[in-house]
Design goal:
The complex is a heterodimer. By secondary structure, chain A is α+β, with helices and mostly antiparallel strands. Chain A is built from twelve helices and eight strands. The radius of gyration of chain A is 23 Å and the shape is globular. The termini of chain A are far apart. Chain B is 54% helix and 13% strand. Classes of the chains: A alpha+beta, B alpha+beta.
Amino acid sequence: MNFDDTPQEAEFRALARKWIEANRPDDLMRDLAAADEIKDRDQRTAALVKASKAWQKKKADAGFACLTWPKEYGGRAATPIQRVIWDQEEGKYGALSGPFAIGQGMCGPTVMAYATEDQKRRYLPPLASGEEVWCQLFSEPAGGSDLAGLRTKAEKDGDDWIINGQKIWTTGAHFSDYGILITRTDPTLPKHKGLTMFFLDMRSPGVEVRPIKQASGHSGFNEVYFTNVRIPDAQRLGKVNDGWNVSLTTLMNERFSIGARLATGVPEFFDFASGVKMADGSLAIEDKAVRENLATWAARANGLKYTSYRAISSLSRGERPGPENSIGKLVAAPMMQDIAMYALELQGQMGAVARDDASPSGKLYQMLYGAIGMRIAGGTDEVMRNIIAERVLGLPGDIRVDKDLPFNQVPTKGR
Amino acid sequence: MNFDFSDEQKQLRDEARRFLSENCTPKHVRAILEGKDTYDRALWKGLAELGLIGVAIPEEFGGAGAGRLELCVVAEELGRALAPVPYSSTVYLAAELLMLAGSDAQKQAWLPKIASGDAIGTLALAEGIGDPTPQSIKTTAAGGKVSGTKTLVPDGGIADFAIVVAREGLFLVELNGAGVSRENVETVDPTRNHARIVFNGAAGEPLGAGADAWSLVNNVLDRAAVLVAFEQIGGSDRALEMGRDYALDRIAFGRPIGSFQAIKHMLADMYVAATLARSNAYYGAWALSTDAGELAEAAANARVSATQAYQLCSKNNTQVHGGMGFTWEFDCHLYYRRSNLLALTLGSLTMWENRLIDEMRKRNAAA
C-alpha cells in the first residue's frame, strides 16, 4: 500500500508538470474570475467561453486535450491513469474546462461509438480542441428521471427527419455549436423501444434556446425548442428505434468520472468555524456540537477522497474501477446542503444576511443554493440510490407499469 | 498509486475467511452468548496454530513477522465473523504496547506466549463513567505496588496479564497473582468478556519507563482504533449482505421486498456508509503500517467513519428483517450487539470526533 507513482506514471507526471509550469494560464484564470462578475448573461458567457477556449486550444496543440481519445480524433491515446495524473497536475486550471465537460465527456464517446469514420474525423478534433462546443439534448419536461418518457418527435421526410418538441435543463446550449439529441420515432412501440438518436447543428433553423433562471439566481442551463427542425438521416447515431441503447453509452460516461473534484463544503466550513466567534467569544470550532458535526462531515469527505484513490489504484493496475465510485455525488451534495445551512444557523439571525462573496461564509451561502441543483443534476439522490441498489447490490428493479405499453397509451395526467 | 492490499495480503484474508467460515459460524458465537464459557477456546487455539494471533509479532518473539497491513486484513475477517475471542485486547493493545515500549525481557516473557495462544493480555485504562483522561486516573503504583479499580477492562476476566495505566506510568501486572480481584461484568455484547478489576498492592513491573506514559497510551489507542475499524468494516459488510439477501428472498405484497424503494434506499445508504468507512480504514492502515505522522488523524478518521457505518448497517439490517430481526433466533442482534460494543470500546464516538478535529487543526496550523 503506497501513494507512489510507477516509473511510467512519474515520467508522465513530470512531462505534464513541466508543460503546465511553462504555460500556466494565470491570465486566463483572471479573465475567468472577471467574467463571473459580468451581469449581462450573453456578455458573461462570451467572456467565460473565450477564456476557456484559449486554454483548451493551447492544450490541444500540445497534445494534452481529451487525453484518452485516439490521436486521429484529437486525443493522445493516453491511458486512463495518465488522464487522472493530468487532472491532478492541471489542478485549479481545470476550472477552464467547464464549458467542454459535457461535450467531451459524454457527446464525444457517443459520436465515437456510433458515427461514420468521416464524421468522426470531421467532428471529434474540433470538439477536443474546444473550437466547437457540444451539448446533450436529453431531458424533457415529461422525461427527467424517467428519461424514456420523452416526447420530442422525429418524423421521416425523404432523406431528412423533421423534429418537433422541447428539451429542458440543457447545460451550455446557449454557447454550443452542436448537440446530440434523443427523439421519439415510433410512439406505437413501448417507451424504451421507439427512440432514435441524432446529432445536429445548433444553428439549424427552428432551434430556439431560452435560458432558465435557477433558484440560485444563476442561469447555466436552458430550454431548447424545436419547430420543424430538419436533420439529415446521415446524422443519425445508431439504428432507428435503438436510441435507448445509444443513450446508455452516453450516460455510462456521465457516471464514470474518476477523481472528479466534487465540492463538499468541508474545507469552507472548517475555515468558517475556525474564524467565527460564538456569543461567548469562543471560536465556533471549539464548540462541542460544532466539532461533532464537523468530524462526521470531514470523515465523509475524507472517505470520498480515499475512495477515489482506490479507483485510481485500479486504473493504475490497468483494471476497471469497481462500483464504489458511484457514491460521490450522493454523499457530497446533501452534505453540502446541510453544512451550508448549519453555517448560517451558527450565526443566529445574522445568518440570514446574503453574502455572495469570496469569504468562507460567502462561499457557504452560495453552496446553500448550489447544493439544491447538485442533488438533482445528473441523477437525483433517489435515482442514485436506485442505481446503487440495483446495479451494485443486485436488488430487483421497480415494477414499471408502463414498460410494455405502447407509448401512446401511457397515461399523461396524474389527476 | 497502489492504495490497496497486495495479492499476498488478499490471500491471507481468504485463508482467514475460509478458516473462520468453518470454525466461527453464528452457532459458535451463540455458544458463547448463551453458554458459560467466556470465549471460544478452540477458536483461539486454532487462530494461534494458523499463526494469526502473532501475525505482526516479530519472528524472534515467536510470531509470523508480517506487518500491520496483514494484521488489518485478519482484523476485518474477525469482525465479519464476530469472533468471540480476546484478540483485540491481546493483540491490538497488549502486544502493540509491548512492542512499542516493552523491555527486551518483557517482550521475551510475553510475546511468544501471546503468539502461541498461551497468554491473553489487555490494557487496564478506564476507571468508570466517561472517557479516560490523565486526570481521571486514580490508580497508583507507589513502589511498584499497584492499587486502584479499573472498570471496564476488556477481556479482564480471562486475561493473564494487564498493562495498567497508573498515575506513575504504565505497569505490567500478572492477574493471577496476589492483590488482584476481578469480577465479570455483563455488557451489551456478552460474546466478548469484560471485567472490573480491583488492584490492592499487586506487584507491577514498569513498562516504558522514561517515556511519556500518556502519549504511549494515546499512540496505542490510535493503533488499536485503526484495527478495530477493520473489525467494524468487516461487520458492516456482513450486515449489509444479510440485509440484501433477506430483501431478495422475502416476498410481501406479491414481490420481493428488495424491489420497494424504501428498502432499496436503506440498503444503498448502508453501502455508501460501508464504502466510505472502508476507504477511510485503508488510509488508517497505510498510516499505521508506515508509522506516518498522519497516524493520529487517520486513526480518528477511520474510527469515526467505521463506527457510524457499523451502527447504520447493523440497525438497518435488523429493520429490513422486520419482526424476524427482533427475534433471538435470527442473527441480526449478534451484529447489533457487536456494533454497539465496538462503538464504545476504546472510548466514545465523541472522544474520537474531538481527536479528529484536534488533529485537523494541528495540521492546518502547521500548513
